[in-house]
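Subject: Sanity check before I submit

Could someone independently write out the structure tokens for this chain? I want to compare against mine line by line before I put it in a report. The sequence has 274 residues.
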Amino acid sequence: MGEWPQDDGVLFLAQDVRSANNVCVIGRTNGTQIDGNENPIGQILRIKNVPFTILGVLIPKGLSPQGVDQDDIVVMPYTSTMKRVIGGSTLRNINVQIGDERQIEAAQQQIISLLRQRHNIRPGRDDDFTVRTQQEIAEAATATSRVMTVLLGAIAGVSLLVGGIGIMNIMLVSVTERTREIGVRMAVGAHGNDILTQFLIEAVALSAIGGIIGILLGLGTSRLLSTFAHWPTLISIPSIVVAFFVSAAGGIFFGFYPAREASRLDPIDALLYE
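---
Independent answer below. Compare away.
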């Protein structure tokens, strides 16, 4: 608890742990729920019908990176928890803080050796516990995030491919329906590059409008998630810019073939097209 100071009141002492006293400190969220805007210190908090006296309120920490409210917490002596709340004699989790990060690996090995000794695990037998450092937890979270990023990227890639094929089909239909228009433009002096540029601009405009609509939908969905699901969302301006230019580039890529077909039409055949 030394790394999480209280905002008000005091912390319980080692004597409270040895005596299994019914005392606790709470997070700001619990303090607000117990007594509104009043000071909850000295109030009684019942946990499984066991009364605990509130000694202090911890400083607010807000949401964790996973979106969990870190202030929705009650901290009490572990002896009181095992004796009066859980009714067991074992600990499920133990958090250990190392003063020097260079000693983390050595401390981890010492903890493993001590736990194997306390659990009477013979040499060659597997551990019945898990000891993980903060770095290992962070690496696991990073690996999970990386997998999710790849999956979302794959979904976005498939969506972009399907959208691009749709743009190409629309442009091919447009070229077919506007064949006589293309023939007239060529007859009055337009070159193939002019026709190519015209249809490329139309394809880019079509894909850019779709990209803008997608960006607006993404912003709206993020806002709804933050409002109703209370999920922390981060809107990155560079990501929005990249998404817009990718959608525009998709219009150029998928619109080039229909535009080239339009530019290669024979003026006479185009004018006679029914």
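---
OP: Matches mine. For the report I'm noting this point. Residues 219 and 244 are 13 Å apart (CA to CA).
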